[in-house]
Amino acid sequence: MSPIDLxxxxxxxxxxTDEAGATLKRTSFSTVVRESNDFACVxxxxxxxxxxxxxxxxxxxxxxxxxxxxxxxxxxxxEQLKPGDILFTNDPWIGTGxxxxxxxxxxxxxxxxxxxxxxxxxxxSDIGGRQWSADAGEVYxxxxxxxxxxLAEEGTFNPWVMQMLEAxxxxxxxxxGDIEAQVGxxxxxxxxxxxxxxxxxxxxxxEIAGAIFKASEDAALRELRKIPPGVYRGSVxxxxxxxxxxxxATLTVTPDGVTVDYSGSTGQVRFGINETFNHxxxxxxxxxxxxxxxxxxxxxxxxxxxxxIAPEGTIVNAKPPAAVGARHLIGHQLQAAVFDALSSVMPxxxxxxxxxxxxxxxxxxxxxxxxxxxxxxxxxxxxxxxxRDRDGAPAAGFPxxxxxxxxxxxxxxxxxxxxxxxxxxxxxxEGAHRGGMGQKVSFQSRWPGRxxxxxxxxxxxxxxxxxxxxxxxRTGHVLLNGQPVQNPKGVVDMVExxxxxxxxxxxxxxxxxx
Length: 514
Hints:
The protein is an alpha+beta fold. It contains eleven helices and 20 strands. It has two domains: about 210 residues, 2-Layer Sandwich (Beta-Lactamase), CATH 3.30.450; about 160 residues, no CATH class.
């Protein structure tokens, strides 16, 4: 295939996933998808290999997609699939690692043959059970879990699936709206891929995918081979629930690939900060993407270079029925362990630890007098770690590119009044380049009854580390009416007039300050 043809095909496939992503974003009902971009749309080949992604897709969903499809096909083999089918699951050990994420797959047929799969993944605003939080003791408390089922069969919706889902969530209209937005995204991807095959007169995407994989692999290997072969070790510590969690990463680098082994990491814990393997895999390979080939879209040509070992029963690969609802509080810190391991051989490319993970705040209220209720999820980001040639970005999403929820949107959809929202001067670690500043957010309840607030926070005790002599960033805090919250990963109750203050952590500094 000529380089010109390859470039045309490659960009066309990305355009297809981008259009699917735009469809999902613009037709969704929840702010989680519409405002915060907590979703992904991808195309995979018939061997469950990632081919193309939408530009707004988050790293966690991109990385889990091939593993999810392989898990789905073990339950529902290709031979059982027909045009118009849509497969659905939210099983944490098949999908993205926790119940709120809906993973949907549509097989794409062309002239009677299966040629590809379209996948759409989105974080639903509710999945039943306890409200989304970190304080569940097992997965059964966290919501309804669907095994792999056919949401649609030959184009006809399975009413039982939607009835079960709607009967178990607090926001049935909103959840159904997001599910249907995902279906719309899948249909757009299917239609546009068939148009491409018809336009160019090709029977399938096998040759295109093979050429894409080869080009991506070659580009990544050129950069990988600049790293001296060897064994490198890194670690990161996080607040955990009631005891510090330590993640140990041993990287074995060869000219042909990398193995990352998390042996020695803390064992799985009682509460919902445990990781599943799929999510661990996704956020392990992502920092390599940043280091080796940031300009190349994700696909199997890159991901095939990495092997991840995460012993079962550890915090990075918990066994069922572990609670996993807030698994991102660990998963988003894996990049820090990888960067730490490579800091000795790639000092000019790694970044200091960031004020991650993003903080998630879920608010839910029930007015028994008026018979009304609401539920809303807000996301906020801390400061990014500094790099050799730049300060860390303030209040910026990393490693997940999930956006902050705009104040105007939050106030319109939730009974809260924001009192302040500002960057925290001096919260980034000092160094030759400063870590990014965290942000301070304060809001007041206007709900007439009890407002239940889940706090999914991190780095309130252990700061983001600096690198190459840089200082650590400042830790975060949570205050209710000016007083420290006893457990910043728990659930707090607010009444009308109460004020909650969130101060997010800053990123670590890079290098010694002149």
